[in-house]
From TrEMBL:
UniProt cross-references to SUPFAM superfamilies, sorted A to Z: Actin-like ATPase domain
Disordered: annotated span: 1-20
Pfam families, sorted: ROK (PF00480)
GO molecular function: kinase activity
Annotated TM spans: none
Full protein name: Putative NBD/HSP70 family sugar kinase
Lineage of the species this protein comes from: Bacteria, Bacillati, Actinomycetota, Actinomycetes, Kitasatosporales
Coiled-coil region(s): none
Tagged with keyword Kinase: yes
Length: 413
């Protein structure tokens, strides 16, 4: 089944409803992101009467998406209000993620509720069809084993994804052909699976860049909540990615390829990058770079990210590890300062290994960013670590939930 082009990160609560337009989408978005935990909060956020908010919450409950606590609680004004939240037995979506060294799948409910994760090693062949078929098979097994209805599936890829075609123009990690039709291949792989009796058929699918999806997840459910201009920079198992969320919506550029921050040069004489340049942030501030700075040979039987995180923690008592962390932190700071000069974010969230580097150098990293940033000298940007477990999978869940957050009635199709 052809994939449906999806606009990333367009929150319903940011789009003021037209006269007569259904309030279901904006209301579900508010409950999904935790901004309306009670009926009174929903009333205030939507700007409607209590009766209207109650009717909207009731309709979302009838759709099986929201739970309304029938026992009112007191409010600051002394008027009781009903708690609102995602229905614990409501539908789910499948989130899949392709890493440089493994595959991951999980089911995700509303509210970013992440189910048990399943991790698989990479198969011997890493061509797109083989990898996406493996992910689809693992995801289908989860869907069949769960009693809840599955409404969609989305995939986080560690490379740029062109919108709206869903192609991967430069899959540098696995050496895929240019403009690999990743979205179409993933849709075909899911369509070929036995999804059991409770999945929506045909199952809607979508594909996006993993850093974009991490940023979306952190903005809605994690360390980026309430930021107006959120810059996310992250390093997972290999390389560096980044994304920008502006007023609740991902900035993806004219074709979905914006914010490839990993290819910002921070050392012209540095390590060679797969893109053809030298000294890109992509190869100067990722797990391989940290291990190389400490003269550590990676253990091929273990995750690069896990090994780099251990090294970052050792900086507290090991001088060699301390020196390696400081070197990589300084490179990362140069990149963040350059991005801050251009983008002027009001918050920077660091994911993956970069969160560990911030923990290992909580003063050095922000000070270096401030020193090298024009705006940082007069208006220091808060730098915080990501807050979500498996943010890439949570973000893939956000992508799959997107159509239903905009039009909740689709959940009963």
């Amino acid at each position: 089944m052809p994939h449906t082009p999806t606009t990333l990160g367009e929150p319903a609560h940011r789009r003021a409803p037209d006269r007569g337009r259904s309030l279901l989408g904006p209301a579900l978005e508010l409950i999904h992101t935790g901004r309306a935990p009670t009926r009174s909060a929903l009333t205030a956020a939507l700007g409607v009467t209590r009766a209207t908010a109650g009717a909207v919450a009731g309709e979302l409950a009838a759709l099986g998406l929201v739970a309304v606590d029938q026992h009112p609680i007191g409010s600051s004004r002394g008027r009781p209000s009903h708690r609102l939240g995602p229905a614990t037995d409501g539908p789910v979506v499948l989130a899949a993620q392709l890493h440089a060294d493994r595959l991951s799948v999980a089911l995700v409910g509303l509210g970013g509720a992440l189910g048990e994760r399943v991790h698989l090693p990479l198969p011997d062949r890493t061509d797109p069809q083989t990898l996406l078929n493996e992910l689809a098979a693992a995801g289908a097994a989860l869907i069949r084993a769960d009693r809840r209805r599955c409404l969609g599936a989305a995939l986080a890829l560690p490379n740029p994804v062109r919108e709206p075609q869903g192609t991967a123009p430069a899959a540098l990690i696995f050496g895929w052909p240019g403009d690999t039709p990743a979205a179409a291949l993933f849709a075909d792989a899911m369509a070929a699976q036995d999804l059991g009796p409770r999945a929506r058929l045909p199952l809607p699918t979508a594909v996006a860049n993993d850093a974009n999806l991490v940023a979306l997840a952190e903005h809605r459910h994690g360390a980026g909540r309430d930021a107006r201009q959120l810059l996310l920079v992250t390093s997972g198992h290999l390389g560096v990615g980044g994304a920008l969320v502006v007023d609740g919506r991902l900035h993806t550029g004219s074709a979905g390829l914006a914010l490839e921050v990993g290819h910002l040069t921070v050392d012209p004489q540095g390590r060679p990058c797969p893109c053809g340049n030298r000294g890109c942030l992509n190869v100067e501030a990722d797990p391989q770079a940290l291990l190389a700075a400490a003269d550590r040979t990676p253990d091929p039987s273990r995750s690069l990210l896990d090994q780099a995180r251990e090294l970052a923690r050792e900086a507290a008592h090991d001088p060699a590890a301390r020196a390696a962390v400081d070197k990589v932190v300084d490179r990362l700071a140069l990149g963040l300062a350059g991005l801050a000069n251009i983008l002027n974010p009001d918050r920077i969230v660091l994911g993956g290994l970069h969160g560990d580097l911030l923990a290992a150098a909580p003063e050095r990293l922000p000070e270096a960013v401030t020193r090298h940033s024009l705006w940082g000298r007069c208006d220091q940007v808060p730098i915080v670590a990501s807050a979500l477990r498996a943010a890439g999978l949570v973000g893939a869940g956000e992508l799959a939930w997107g159509p239903y957050l905009a039009e909740p009635q689709l959940a009963v199709g």
